[in-house]
Amino acid sequence: MKEISNNKQKVNIFSQNTRTLPKSRTMSPPSNGLNISVTESPNDTTINFPNGDKMNVSKDNTIFYTFANGSTQTTYADGLKITNFPNGQIEKVHKNGVKHIIYGNGLQRTINPDGSEEVFMTDGTVWRIHSDGSEVLEFANGDREIRTDNYKVVV
Questions:
Q1: Which of 64, 83, 102 represents a domain boundary (last residue)?
Q2: Which family does this protein fall into (predicted)?
């Protein structure tokens, strides 16, 4: 048995190795009484939630989640999670905690588990924020600006 969750609702899915399930059924979890539609095939399981969200779990344990607002999230068996938003923003969260965000305007941001960040702006500027709070801006023209709590220097 594996448990699938959409952050608010949890559903237990029995693999076909342990129990034969009908091709389609409606479940009513006793805790909240919500009807959840579950459809199974040899290659995947699809769950439709009452709020319009839809989750598809493939045979290789890849989870495809479509939110009612149009966002999609794919979680791979290796832990990589990719979320696409309707405004064009894409977020990739790696198993090691590194988060990479591509905004709709082309700006890219990487957030590391230690709190450091790198921001790649569309004009070629790179803004590095270190875990100690110091910052380095590298401009497209080659100028550099170093910032700390105590000073700001243009190099």
A1: 83
A2: Belongs to the TCP10 family.
Tell me which amino acid residue 56 is. N
Strands 135-138 and 126-129: antiparallel
Across-strand partners of 145? 137, 154
C-alpha separations of 125 from 66, 70, 109 in Å? 34, 32, 12
Average pLDDT over all residues of the chain: 83
Residue 119 structural domain = 87-155
- What six digits make up the tokens of 146? 């170093």
Strand partners, 113: none
Is the CB of residue 74 less than 8 Å from the CB of residue 81? yes
3-12, 24-33, 94-103: range with highest mean pLDDT:
94-103
